Amino acid sequence: MTYGILFGWSTFLRLGILSQGYIYPKEQRPVRDLLRGRLLFVKQRTAQILSLQSMISRILGLDFSGNSIKGFDIHFIERLFDCYHQRFTAEKNLLTIHFLGGIITQIEAEVKSQIELRKDFQMLLTTPGIGTILGLTIMLEVGDFGRFAKVGNYSSYCRCVESKRTSNKKKKGENNRKNGNRYLAWAYVEAAHHSARVCQKAQTFFQRKMAKCNRTLAVKALANKLSKATYYIMRDQVAYNADMLFQ
User: Fold this and answer.
1) How many other CB atoms are there within 10 angstroms of residue 184's CB atom?
2) pLDDT by residue (tens digit) across 189-213?
3) Helical segments of the chain, H only
4) Under 8 Å CB-to-CB from 37, ≥6 apart: which residues?
5) Which of 5, 51, 150, 176 gets the highest tally of CB atoms within 10 A of its CB?
6) DSSP 146
7) pTM exceeding the 0.70 threshold for the entire prediction
8) Exposed, middle or buried, 15 (CB in 10 Å: 0-12/13-18/19+)?
9) What 3-state class would DSSP assign to 101?
10) 3-state secondary structure of 29
11) Measured between alpha carbons, how far is 93 from 44 in angstroms, rounded to an integer?
């Protein structure tokens, strides 16, 4: 029985039917895992920012952006709230935000001191919304770029496409949504948020999608666009071209 199973697997491998997994280079794993750990602190800081943002809006009726809240100091919070307990809670939120921000900055400095963008990934920085940290994240999560034969393989690995089964143009079910790399999925969603703010063509595309669906789907659509664009940027070693992407 065991011999038959082994013979079956070897036949699949010989015929190219069974896909082989990718073994990530051992020497780069610690730095990659350090960047993955950074994501946890970023999420925790975001939760604290949203909590303080909601508290200010609920109690005072004021609207501050997340970046504005990062720049708050204790004296501003003291002037903002009259109630002691509300001020106490807001101060603890702010101290936690600053503490987590310091950890994130230290991790980023450590990563930058240990590794640099390889030549075949440097063109990523021409993409609006992708800076050094997101570029390093993409490089470290992708590993060997040659393992992606087509752009669809890459965007699927980045979790930027729908996970569904169709027959005769009708949806028949969904595949496993957890296939692919969740860190690349996060990186491209972050890039989409930034790109929609700094690139006029990306913003126009985003607004057009927003008119047809909800914000989450619009962000994912833009993230999918960026994942496909960066595939060709990395493969062909060319700079980002908004006209070609949003023609």
Assistant:
1) 22
2) 999 999 999 989 999 999 999 888 8
3) 2-15, 29-60, 66-70, 74-80, 84-114, 132-142, 151-157, 182-198, 200-210, 215-236, 242-245
4) 107
5) 51
6) G
7) yes
8) exposed
9) helix
10) helix
11) 11
